Amino acid sequence: MIKLRRDLGLLEAFGLSLSVIAPTMAMAFSTTLAVGAAGVFAPLSFVFGAFAMIIVGFCFVAFARRVSNSGSVYAYVGHTFGPRCGFMSGWALLLTYFMLTAGAAAMVGNFVAAFFAEWGIQSPHLWLYISALGMLVCLWLTWNDARIATRVMLGLEMLSVCSILFLAIRILMRVPLSRVPFHPNNFHAWSGIGYGMIFAILSFSGFEGAATLGEETRDPKRVIPLAIIGTLVLSGILYVIVMYAQVVGYGIDHIQTLAQAEAPLSDLSNRFVSRQFAECIDLATATSAFACVIGSLSAAARMLYTLAPAGGVPWLAVLHPKNSTPARALLAVSGSSIAALLLWGIKVGPIVFGGSVVTIGILSLILVYLSMTAAETAEAFRRRHVGWIVLGLAGTILLLWPLYNSLYPVPSRPGNLWPYLVIGWMLLGVLKNVFSKSGLLDPSADVPTA
């Protein structure tokens, strides 16, 4: 009998969550989107976004103290509403993790290719080769000892975070500070802040990755909550500081320039540090994306490993006999990601491909977070915990606002198609649910080896 190996601690769990949200990559992409939505008040969008995500995080924490399972929301929602509802939540989260894996892989290729271009090394599909190679390296890391993969993720992400934090501090020391970003003065400003929360949630997406290690940590009921809340608090502080630094770095009166910037971190690095540091920031962003691939691939494989028996594909729930890692699930996720890059990414390029798959993933993720806040609200009603009832309802209301703004006004093509793709994925999950006689995977059950 082979089981997932229980040898991970707080460091590894924190590393997985931090690498999946990829703070450096998030700041490289979310800034212009958030500023385009909220203008100069973008930092405030991240304050409210962090608050909403911390509420959702506490819902994960509450369930992590009750249930220890690699299925994350599959086990958590199933604990309250039954295994079939749990399966649907896990099914939605699987789509999110897969999309994050493919999107981050494309960004690795994009950033590294851009770095090579600075030195005159160019090729039409260089980014694609780099993305595919990066995916294979990530597969090798996650295939072997999970401790190695998670520590590599943490090391890479911390190096990247230190780079952008240094840049933010340098900016704040050299420009006049302003209170304007935190003092909206009309309804239009507050409306923009609400819309900007979409991109804050995008930046926090994946914080719950540590929950997929529930069967591999030595003390999951302590370690998983600490990793989740720690990731949210630290990344929230980082996001607000870096976002504010970028706003004042460009200048309150030049906010539209920031909204239209292709590489704001690189631009600010050139202006406030040096060209060489700007190149380092480009590499740091690529490193962050690489860590995100490792984290998303790990989380997706563990989710697929848990869902497979109930989804009618038990042959995917197989562990490596030596490493105790979900071998076949890792192959399935990485192979599917490479296929998506080759079939879709090569036609539209890394930016469009990455933006499209991440949009699909975030729509699915909001559904997951809504299921978690609803489950915790129902659980609190059963236990008559008024505080948790209020917390769950507040989280649900806060999440409904960005969900609405993700759908209306209707995005231009092909963005208007992505909600239908998510609906199609969920309908496929319903069919698997209807014809499956399995419930939640029993963590104590025998698991075949590869």
Task: Describe the fold and architecture.
The protein is mainly alpha-helical. Helix content is 74%, strand content 0%. It is globular. Residues 439-450 have low confidence and may be disordered.
Give the gist of this structure:
This protein is mostly helical. It has 16 helices and no strands.
Structure characteristics:
450 residues; mainly alpha; Amino acid/polyamine transporter I
Question: Gyration radius, to the nearest Å?
Answer: 21 Å
Order of helices and strands: HHHHHHHHHHHHHHHH
CATH topology: Amino acid/polyamine transporter I
Shape: globular
Q: Which stretches of 5+ consecutive residues score pLDDT under 50?
A: 439-450
Pfam family, one: AA_permease_2
Protein name: Amino acid transporter
Transmembrane segments: 46-64, 85-106, 126-143, 155-173, 193-211, 223-245, 326-346, 352-374, 386-405, 417-435
Main location: membrane
